[in-house]
Amino acid sequence: MASRLVFAFCFFSFLLQLEAAKSHSNINNPQITVMGIVYCDICSNNSFSRHSYFLPGCVWLCLSFDVNELGSVFWEEKEFDVNELGVEVRIDCMFNAIAPRTAEQISFSVNRTTNKYGIYRLEVPSVDGVQCARDKAVKSTCRATLLSTSSKACAIPGFQSTSDQISIKSKRANMCIYSLNALSYRPSKRDTALCGK
């Protein structure tokens, strides 16, 4: 009986150590998020004003509204192709990896579409050697560029590209968030009644 208890204790201790090692290795892997917003600069003054709004997109299901013959508004869910709605943004990133004998660079480009709040977001999978939160100097950079918009009312590019970013880092969780400056579109004609001269 005592040998069974010792075996069970050793077995469960081994499982606990294995789980602790797994969670410890996950902490060492960086969690990197790159994000930004796209808005419509209604008054074409190169800033977010009280008349501006975020340019939303849709992932899988969107609400659509219509007016029937009686003048009643009704909402329905419709499925859309992700490329038909929202703003498409190209994200280019370069990360410097820390290797024992060499300096390595990891570069990639991806396209993302804004969500229903006008936010585009990229979750970067764990990259071996990248310690984003532990680096004191900014060695990683990202850039966002407007590609297209589904909005017909606000389709002239304003702020088309940005590489300016705010980096938020957490050493404890080895997590980095790169928040890029806002990108914008504007209408083809300025509404002087709404925005003034």
Walk me through this protein's architecture:
- With 197 residues, the chain is of the alpha+beta class.
- It starts with a helix and ends with a helix.
- It has helices at 2-28, 192-195; strands at 31-40, 53-54, 61-67, 73-79, 87-98, 103-113, 119-124, 141-149, 156-157, 161-162, 165-170, 175-180, 183-186.
- It contains 2 helices and 13 strands.
- Strands 1, 2, 7, 9, 11, 12 and 13 form a 7-stranded mixed β-sheet that branches. A 4-stranded antiparallel β-sheet has the order 6-5-8-10, with no helix packed on it. A two-stranded antiparallel sheet has the order 3-4.
- The radius of gyration is 24 Å and the shape is elongated.
- The protein has one domain (30-66, 73-190).
- Keywords: Signal.
- This is Pollen allergen Ole e 1 family.
- It holds the Pfam family Pollen_Ole_e_1.
- Residues 1-20 form the signal peptide.
